[in-house]
Amino acid sequence: MAVLKEGSRPPWVGLAAAVWVQIAAGNAYTFPLYSPALKSVLGFSQQQLTIIGVANDIGENVGILPGIACNKFPPWVILLVGVCLSFFGYGVLWLAVSQTLLSLPYWVLWLALVVATNSSAWMGTAVLVTNMRNFPLSRGTVAGILKGYVGLSGAVFTEIFAMVLNDSASELLLFLALGIPIICLVMMYFIRACTPASGEDSSEHVHFIFTQAASLLLAVYLLTTTILKSTLSLNSSISYILAGVMVIFLMSPLAIPVKMTLFPSLHKRSGKLDGSSNNLTEEEVSSSQTASLLTPISSEADLGSFHEGEDVSEVDMLLAEGEGAVKKKRKPRRGEDFKFREAVVKADFWLLWVVYFLGVGSGVTVLNNLAQIGVALGVNDTTILLSLFSFCNFLGRLGAGVVSEHFVRSKTIPRTFWMMVTQIIMIVTFLLYASALSGTLYAATALLGICFGVQFGVMIPTASELFGLKHFGIIFNFMQLGNPIGALLFSGLLAGYVYDAEAGKQQGPHCLGANCFRLTFLVLAGVCAFGAFLSMILTIRIRPVYQMLYAAGSFRVAQDSDH
Q1: Is 493 exposed, middle or buried, given 0-12, 13-18 or 19+ CB atoms closer than 10 A?
Q2: Are the beta carbons of 405 and 141 closer than 8 angstroms?
Q3: Shortest CA distance to 177 belongs to which of 62, 100, 66, 74?
């Protein structure tokens, strides 16, 4: 069992380090930056490129192995695997795009991209699971912050691509192959399991607000500097200075543990004041929550007791239960800790999976084809378009955590309500794309980015609240399979086919005009309509769970019972 780091400061050091790892884990969002080079240098068709894009999504989201491993190994082991995958995967892609190695087979490049972006799954799982367990009472906020930085990573890499790497795809791939491993190797020491807080703390709330504000300022800064770079001619010195300011913004969450170190008395005084207002019952609830989160998993013992029961007759077992010698086991209820095999047979599990699949699958189709959509609709420089999507994706992820946390505590409204609202907005967004009206491209991209981000920011805490944190790693990563499956169906098969068919009619290598993606957008609008309907059903079903978990206005762990 991993030794837990105690104290109030280490979780915040881990969260600050997790910000950097999450930026690195967003490497899959760089695909639109180097996909034009794959197409031109290697001579791919649009459908071949979209199938490569599916590899990008498969690698990023197939995280079953890291989900299992996070319950068996410390976070640094999980991060080390991600380091190796990033180095070898992006290394092969760099060899191909830089033409250091010529005539690499298509399937080798496809597999290399799967390996490269699978580093995202290992890195993201390590920091997300660790920090969700370190801050179990603020899981929605933590999920929103960490997933927000992943959404922002696209803009961070775009800034580096435009201002430091001079729009060179080969240099970007080399940076991904070397830079990501360096970041994770430096940060892995600080990502560790810590003893969670035993109750609500007002200073913790202030620290989260500071972290959210810092990330929002970073997002605004990135969008502003990207627009400046695209509209003005900036020399290399100014570009490097702007990139350096970005690094300072990324370091801002470290101000919290620094403040705790310099002014420890303030934090202790705040903790004492908060602690004095809690009654004994709340402390017992928090203590039982901490114990349930940190109890080591012993599946072998569970299996052993199961097989031992096979040798005991049913009559003897009933007699033993009646006398109190044996405690009758019951299946967990929603809100308690589920094993994966217990969760996967629940209707709510599959409803959440399908709703998430429809929401992110339709959104990732646009993201994977954003460069081609922009060109088809007359935008040659798609850098601003990608930065806008990344910025709004971040707002959606961060906002989903903040807004859903507020309403779940004040009104016990299930978080999935916001998935329903955003998928209704996505219907309108896809119809805007299909109409190709003048001036609607940027507005539609901004709306879609926000709604796409909300799907991530809501699914993660919802899965932890319905099925617990004990096996959260594998449950969350199974949910994420909706992303690559959606990319395969909607992007690889639908969008790629429609684009190539229209390009064939125009008798050119590129497709121009609204018809290149119009049918795709209309299908995606129908997909989101179905998703909104299912999310409404899910919200109604799980409302009683949230009324139980948040009855007192803050998270309360469902207590085990024998009934």
Answers
A1: middle
A2: yes
A3: 100
For residue 514, the tally of other CB atoms under 10 A from its CB is: 15
For the ranges 203-212, 258-267, 444-453, 504-513, the one whose mean pLDDT is highest:
444-453
Cβ-based burial of 98 (10 A; exposed 0-12, middle 13-18, buried ≥19): middle
Element (H, E) at 238: helix 236-251
Beta carbons within 10 angstroms of residue 479's beta carbon: 23
CA distances from 18 to 68, 135, 143, 359 (A): 20, 13, 12, 26
* Residue among 491, 527, 499, 496 nearest 56 (CA): 491
Q: 88 by DSSP, 3-state: which?
A: helix
Tell me the average pLDDT across 484-500.
Answer: 86
Q: In degrees to the nearest 10, what's the CA dihedral of 242, 364, 63, 39?
A: -70
pLDDT tens string 92-114:
999 999 888 878 888 999 999 99
Half-sphere exposure of residue 87: CA atoms within 13 angstroms, side-chain side: 12
Handedness of CA 374, 379, 380, 384 (dihedral sign): negative
Side-chain-side CA neighbours of residue 142 (13 Å): 24
Q: Is 510 left (phi over 0), alpha (psi -120 to 50) or beta?
A: beta
pLDDT at 267: 53
- Residue 321 CB burial class (10 angstroms; 0-12, 13-18, ≥19): middle
DSSP character at residue 217: H
Closest CA to 130 of 261, 250, 22: 22
Integer Cα distance of 149 and 66 in angstroms:
20
Structure tokens at 47: 């459908």
Q: Which amino acid is at 327?
A: K
What pLDDT, on a 0 to 100 scale, did the predictor assign at position 172?
Answer: 94
3-class DSSP state for residue 328?
coil
Banded model confidence at residue 75, pLDDT cuts 50, 70, 90: very high
Q: DSSP class of residue 336?
A: B
Tell me the whole-structure pTM to 2 decimals.
Answer: 0.77
pLDDT tens for each residue of 5-49: 554 557 889 999 999 999 999 998 888 888 888 888 888 877 788
